[in-house]
Design goal:
heterotrimer; A alpha/beta (288); B mainly alpha (233); C mainly alpha (277); A: Rossmann fold; 2 domains; six-stranded mixed sheet; 9 helices; 14 strands; C: 277 residues; 11 helices; ABC-type multidrug transport system, ATPase component (chain A); ATP-binding (chain A)
Chain lengths: 288, 233, 277
Amino acid sequence: MRIEISRLTKTYKGGVRALDGLDLDVPTGMYGLLGSNGAGKTTLMRILAGLLRPTSGTVRVGGHDITAADGRLAVQRTLGYLPQSLGVYPDLTARQFLDYIALLKGLDSRPSRRRRIGELLETVALTPDADRRLKGFSGGMLRRVGIAQALLADPRLLVVDEPTTGLDPEERIRFRILLSRLAGDRTVLLSTHIVEDVAQTCRSLAVLDKGRLVFRGEVGELVSRAERRVWTLTTSGPAPSQGRIVAALPEGAGTRYRVITPTAPGPSAQPAEPTLEDGYLALMEPGR
Amino acid sequence: MRPLDLWSHEIRRAGPAALLAPPVLVVLIALLAAFGTRLGSREGNTAWFLMIALEAGIPLVSGIAAASLIGRDRAVEVQLTLPTGYRSTLLRRLAVTAGWSCLCALAASALLIVTGWWDLPPGAPHGPAGQLAWLSPALWLTALGLLAAAAFRGTTAAATVVASVWVFEQVFSSVFRESPVFRLLHLFATTRGTAPGEWLPNRLTLLSTALLLAAAAWLLLGDAERTLEGEAK
Amino acid sequence: MIATFRYEFRMQIRRPVLWIVYGLTFAVTVAGFGHTYLDLNLGGDEGREPRPAMIVSAILLTSLLPIVYGCLLADRLVRDRRLGMTDVLDTTPAGRTGRLAGKYLGVCAATAVPLVLAYLGRAAAYAVTEGEPAALGWAAVILVTTVVPALLFVGALALAGPLLMPPLLFRVLFVVYWFWGNIIPATMMPTLSHSILSANSQYVAYGLLGFGHYRELPPNVILPPGGIVYGPWPGAALNFLRPEASPAVALLWIGVMIALAAAVLLLARLHTARTES
């Protein structure tokens, strides 16, 4: 399911421009959306989910214009959405919550609904906790309930907003594997400010900054933005003043710095292999 | 018609307070009808209290319940992205709380009619139209609660509006009785009295203005972005 | 406590709904009363002198606006728990008692601001139109002796009530309480209305401010030799809670309001200690 976004602008009441003339094509498969907090990712996600109206521009999802009511409804029928902070009804068990959302998604047949909920609880490894009330769930478990509810109607488009925020490393890895498995013939749009999430799951990505698109392409392309710009330097003296320090690790009597800068930050600096995070930071360098 | 399973979920969403308050009120009405005189309350007073419990108590409960519909929903963001429109879901929840209040009121009024209490207050309405004594104010305050909830997107402000209208009409009922315009909108015209021949027009005006309030709420609720924003900034 | 007071005051006073709901209620009151509200005339000629005029103005406002005041306060204490703020606040050096006191005074003060403005605004308008600057002084006296003690008690009740029951149920019961315990005639049924325990009693007006001397009643009403007596209602139950108004009883009423507020807050404090420890 393809998403075509053209000249999309969203200005909130009070004049805050969250998206500014965004053009983006998202193909089928896993697609990452990176950006710092406040870059406009959640606004874009909410527009795609039909929650916000664009101020101007067009958004077509699978050929449907989501600025029109019927287009929005058509998209919502094929959409799975996991918001940044999922609100749940704490008095319900995980199974009851999923049953309620499934009914609202139009899964009217009780046997097939139960079967689907059972499968999804298994998928997100919540079967043992399915009949516990949600008010006792940890953040990671609630995220998994969230992804299960998003998958209920077997959506063609899955929009997940900051899904791994607040998860422990094990939960995070499990979540990434789950998302990658789900991609297949779906479009999974993963919005995050955690670069590693995208590095581990997506081939293509876009980067937003202050509501504008600053990069779109393959992960490798973004990595290459930092090629010949990443250096390591070990010193017991002051930190290098040139470039942007992205890591500092104590080593013996000194500190090993990882620096992004076009030229070597010191005589003993060694070039290093860039990562996606380096590419992202290089892209975000002021005056790049 | 959606599956019964969905209705059973919506009944649960109404919460214990909205489900318990109307039957508790009916039980209190029954107790007052049975033991009021023995407690020393004059018969006329008891009859008036029974009627006011119906005309004012039931509408207060259903109005505050309607005002709490939106502000209490924690899963509103997911709800707004579902193919079943959020307005339909809210309408279903409203049908549960208001419908339950009305059923309880009907049971209480049947009890009062059978036991003869209904006929005691002077000028008590008779026949099927007599049921408008509680139905009109209940629907009016419910519609007001829904509109206030849609306008303020928060329970506190919406419930405050319902509560203050209720108290205003009780405290200053003479203001309503004396004004030819306000008289038509007096919620408690049965127990507080109105001009001769004005009771039925008052009840019908309440019903029709309730429809207008509900329609305004429906329009406001169609705006997902507004609903998502939460309490008025 | 002072920091809590300051922030709670700011958070509450910045809520637009506070101003919108008060504004709506006030507008409906003025529209409903029309000339009566402007004349401050409740059937007699009370509106002519500044002291009774300001008492009448206070009676009108404090019959209705405390409902708005109470309902707007009702979510403030349970809100911290819902927003997950309790743990964060518990790690601050401020003690729970100090925080509760600061929160209580801060939100009550902020929520009372529109009500006080409406009252003082009316007093200022009266002072200018009638050429009676004394109205402002009387308004201040009535505010401190009548309105503030009542609001202290109602505020404590509205803040603490939702700790014990769902807020929806509390709001319904609060309205019923206000109507039953403060508004209805005492002869209608056994009630706290017009008693020393009622926030809406006029003990200060009659006992301290001599409101009885200003009331003009129809000629067919035969008054006892001492003039109008505020207190016991002939034929009402619970009349032992309605002593005759006198300066001492007026001061007692103020003391009772403050003591009831303190007792309710103490219960709230004990409740939070039990549920959160």
